[in-house]
Specification:
- This protein has helices spanning 3-26, 43-59, 67-82, 92-102, 106-111, 114-121, 135-151, 156-170, 178-197, 204-214, 230-243, 260-271, 284-298, 315-328, 343-356, 373-382, 403-411, and strands at 31-32, 125-132, 174-177, 218-223, 248-253, 274-276, 302-307, 332-338, 360-364, 386-390, 398-400.
- It starts with a helix and ends with a helix.
- With 412 residues, the protein is α/β, with parallel strands linked by helices.
- It binds guanosine-5'-triphosphate and magnesium ion.
- Guanosine-5'-triphosphate binds at residues 224, 226-232, 254, 257, 260, 309, 364-365, 367-368, 390-393, 397.
Length: 412
């Protein structure tokens, strides 16, 4: 799930890391992390050594290997010359002697944090002068991020918000050590995404509880275009809430599509749930009304109203949907969207929201969605929370949506 988003965010951290460290190297503002030799406290000496090393590097240019190897080698040499850090290229004899010379005092050793130790081992480097991330450092990379988010079907407004938020957090950020770059970028991205996906809203369970106190059922109506998973989701939720100890009743208000009443009846029979149904072609609003009355009379806690799939452009069917709302007075109208359709799902949700004022979203087929664009965008664009994610075709394949879980999926 969401592999594409995950990859894109990871790439952004990596690109920024390379950019800032390459720039720092060009400015001779880089050193292998480790103990700072007394010599390095003398800026003139530091500059001299770097200059000398640069000269050597110039002369040996043709012999240099690929970029990455080159950077490591150059940094290591500078580090060796200045007497901090260890070069992996030293021969063993030289290494022994140098290491002895540079053996840090016990006191200094203790001062080093665990993190720094780790850094030294993995060749992390520090900046001689503190490096401040500039707008120039981030602009190209964030532009690329924005494009790649759009490719992942992230809505344009959402991509803008992510990029602006990251820019705001990173520009002006002061960096001392190379791996701070990735850390800060990662934190900035995570913060941006968490702003996007954290939409206020009560859980369906807490709403059922609130209604129960009033002695009424929670009435939930499911809407969306054809084939997004409304009927399957109703089966899943009936099962989910029965397992929590509630008694649901289902309204077969898709009286329009051939086979729709049989399909939902198949689910309710399997699950042992009460279904209220009329003839095919009958008034769907009347079916929903009867189901609500039944639940009230029998003290059932939840009414799940299935409706026919309809295109947002079909005025007659959109009007019919408004009638079901007027008659059954649902407490919640949930738009069911197919995560795989990306931006289309966001567009449909916007149109249904305009027509009928939805309260929340369920995105289905998230199990097959590698892009993640709809999951990231839909709540933010319409300002309504995602309540559940459909993650498969079985009754158990439904997950109460949790922004922290989503962040974990994208940034783990
Ligand atoms: N992989 C996967 N498939 C799903 C999920 N939810 C639903 N489906 C499948 O999507 C297809 C359509 O599901 P339905 O529940 O019939 O969709 P609908 O919205 O009721 O369709 P209409 O009534 O025709 O509008 C079925 O094959 C379901 O098994 C899900 O979360 N993951
Ligand atoms: Mg259906």
């Amino acid at each position: 799930m969401f592999e594409s988003l995950k990859k894109k965010f990871a790439e952004t951290s990596g690109k920024l890391y390379n950019k800032v460290s390459n720039e720092a190297e060009e400015e001779n503002n880089i050193m292998i992390e480790g103990e700072v030799n007394e010599d390095t406290k003398d800026p003139q000496k530091t500059e001299d050594v770097i200059e000398e090393e640069k000269q050597k590097e110039e002369n040996n240019k043709e012999e240099k290997k690929e970029d990455e190897g080159k950077q490591r080698s150059s940094l290591s040499k500078i580090g060796d010359k200045l007497g901090f850090g260890k070069s992996k290229e030293k021969n063993s004899k030289e290494e022994d002697e140098t290491e002895k010379e540079q053996e840090p005092t016990q006191a200094k050793k203790e001062e080093k944090s665990e993190e720094e130790d780790k850094g030294e081992k993995s060749g992390i480097f520090s900046f001689i002068r503190e490096k401040t991330i500039s707008e120039k450092d981030v602009s190209d990379i964030l532009w690329e991020l924005e494009l790649s988010l759009l490719e992942s079907d992230v809505a344009i407004d959402v991509a803008n918000v992510v990029v602006e938020s990251v820019k705001e957090d990173l520009v002006g950020q002061k960096i001392r050590r190379s791996n701070d770059i990735e850390k800060y970028t990662y934190e900035a991205l995570k913060k941006a995404v968490s702003k996007i996906i954290d939409i206020d809203g009560k859980s369906m369970t807490s709403l059922i509880e609130e209604k129960k106190i009033e002695g009424k059922p929670l009435v939930v109506m499911f809407v969306g275009i054809n084939g997004t998973g409304k009927t399957t989701t109703i089966g899943k939720l009936a099962d989910y809430y029965m397992k929590k100890g509630y008694t649901p009743v289902v309204a077969a208000s898709d009286t329009f599509r051939a086979g729709a009443i049989e399909q939902i009846t198949h689910h309710t029979d399997k699950l042992g749930v009460k279904i209220v149904k009329h003839e095919k072609g009958s008034d769907p609003a009347a079916v929903a009304f009867d189901a609500v009355e039944h639940a009230k009379a029998k003290g059932k806690e939840l009414v799940l109203i299935d409706t026919a799939g309809r295109m947002q452009t079909n005025t007659n069917l959109m009007d019919e949907m408004k009638k079901i709302k007027r008659v059954s007075k649902p407490d919640l109208i949930i738009f069911v969207g197919d995560a795989l359709t990306g931006n289309d799902a966001v567009e449909q949700a916007t149109k249904f929201n305009d027509a009928i004022d939805i309260d929340g979203v369920i995105l289905t087929k998230a199990d097959a969605d590698s892009k993640g664009g709809a999951s990231l965008s839909i709540g933010y664009v319409i300002g309504k929370p995602i309540m559940f994610l459909g993650i498969g075709q079985g009754y158990d394949d439904i997950k109460e949506y949790d922004p922290d879980w989503m962040l974990e999926q994208i940034f783990s």
